[in-house]
Design brief:
- This protein is mostly helical.
- The chain has a domain of 54 residues.
- The chain is built from 9 helices and 2 strands; from the N terminus they run H-E-E-H-H-H-H-H-H-H-H.
- Strands 1-2 form a two-stranded antiparallel ribbon.
- The longest helix is centred in the last third of the chain and has 27 residues.
- It is flat, with a radius of gyration of 25 Å.
């Protein structure tokens, strides 16, 4: 569950089964009553039908919690963390960062640090496209030590500098706006009828 729509869908499905949720967060929820095996199977089916899965494996659950914490921290927080990401995750998940990192690598095949970097770069792309913040502000919000560090990591991940990425997106938008404008102009031109010669 990564969005409010997902949370609403889950609440609705649980409500249909007569189950009350006491809390719901990214990737996890707490139910107020015991769940029978038949209801458990119905929950699993309802979630699968809506593109979600019910996790029972402890490692998978922990990895999902880590992913959700990273996504929440990078994509939904409007403030720069006051501590580094490893400390944030260790505190939030109440687990040693080295253990989290080792488990993450074991289960996903990628490092936790790389997962964080990928999410930071994706968020940076969004912020660049929105065009409401300077590169310095984006670097600060995503907890980079400097604009240079941000630019280097962005380029290493995407193959493009943030400035080039911004110019490329702006050029695409301009081209689309030009295309839309010329289409409107064509539609507004008076249409002339061609007379066809009738043959006998």
């Amino acid at each position: 569950m990564v969005s409010n729509c997902c949370k609403l869908m889950v609440k609705e499905e649980f409500s249909k089964l007569g189950l009350r949720i006491s809390s719901i967060e990214l990737g996890e929820l707490e139910v107020l009553q015991k769940i029978s095996i038949s209801k458990f199977d119905k929950i699993r089916s309802a979630l699968l039908k809506n593109g979600h899965e019910l996790m029972e494996d402890k490692k998978a659950i922990q990895i999902e919690r880590v992913k959700n914490a990273v996504i929440d921290m990078i994509h939904y927080s409007t403030e720069s963390p006051e501590v580094n990401y490893s400390s944030y995750l260790a505190n939030k998940l109440e687990c040693d960062y080295n253990n989290l990192s080792a488990l993450f690598s074991e289960v996903t095949g990628t490092t936790l640090q790389q997962f964080i970097i990928i999410n930071k770069v994706e968020r940076a792309k969004e912020l660049i496209i929105y065009n409401e913040m300077s590169m310095k502000e984006i670097a600060y919000q995503l907890n980079y030590s400097s604009v240079q560090h941000f630019s280097n990591q962005f380029k290493k991940t995407t193959g493009l500098s943030p400035i080039y990425f911004k110019a490329l997106k702006k050029k695409k938008r301009t081209a689309l706006e030009h295309l839309l404008e010329s289409t409107r102009n064509e539609e507004q031109k008076p249409k002339t009828r061609k007379k066809s010669a009738l043959t006998a």
